[in-house]
Design a protein that fits this description.
This protein is mainly α. The chain has helices at about 10-20, 30-45, 50-55, 60-65, 75-90, 100-110, 120-130, 130-155, 165-185, 190-205. It has a single domain (about 1-220), classed as Tetracycline Repressor, domain 2 (Orthogonal Bundle), CATH 1.10.357.10. It has 10 helices and no strands.
Length: about 220
């Protein structure tokens, strides 16, 4: 659950840039993503062309555009997949599962990041927060994430997604998840799902004293 407020440190960028320099076998969306992220970090987003990314991957420009509509989309592909997974999971949720329990389970099912992914995600979010074109695009992607929650809550309560309670649920869930992401990326001591689970349980409980205790323990 990436947050545009997260920035990378120079040491993290150096370590990750080195690890990203090794090209994965075969050509896939992930191959292009890794190469693009490295080039964006090393020489700048605007200075990097689609042709350069394709050449590094050993594929044609046409192949790149089979996976992505534009080079900026590379940085949002994982996020958009997360939104699709949340939607699909919520669509299959049993009717007797409480609304916020269903939301929490869907969000956790859509996330797969571990502590080892933090350096790469810091690089990605640093680019998004420092390149105006990318920062401007963040709103569209976050709105889609929030809307996936609001539409589900609206279906459950028989109200339009843009009415008060569905909208509040979507925005509150997004805020809690962004806080979880930010704290996880700072500590880098467990899977992201540990932090998402804790934040969403606290939100569902109304942040009562019983649930607001210590931060999630490491290595869970």
């Amino acid at each position: 659950m990436p947050s545009i407020e997260t920035s990378s440190t120079s040491s993290s960028s150096t370590r990750t840039s080195s690890s990203l320099a090794v090209r994965p076998r075969g050509t896939s969306a992930r191959t292009l993503e890794v190469i693009a992220l490295r080039l964006f970090t090393e020489q700048g987003f605007h200075e990097t062309t689609v042709d350069q990314i394709a050449a590094e991957a050993g594929v044609s420009r046409r192949t790149f555009f089979r996976y992505y509509d534009a080079k900026s989309q590379v940085l949002w592909a994982e996020f958009d997949t997360e939104v699709a997974t949340i939607r699909a999971t919520l669509a299959e949720t049993p009717a007797d599962l409480p609304v916020m329990d269903a939301v929490r389970e869907a969000v956790i099912a859509a996330n797969h990041y571990g502590a080892g992914d933090v350096p790469e995600l810091r690089m990605r979010m640093n680019l998004i927060s420092t390149v105006p074109e990318l920062a401007a695009s963040a709103t569209v992607h976050y709105d889609a994430w929030e809307r996936a929650i609001a539409e589900f809550v609206g279906r459950r309560c028989g109200q339009p997604a843009d009415s008060l309670y569905p909208l509040a649920a979507g925005r509150a869930t997004l805020a809690a998840c962004r806080a979880a992401y930010e704290r996880w990326s700072t500590r880098a001591d467990a899977d992201l799902t540990v932090y998402l689970d804790a934040a969403l349980r606290a939100l569902s409980a109304g942040f009562t004293a019983e649930v607001i205790t210590d931060e999630p323990p490491a290595d869970r």
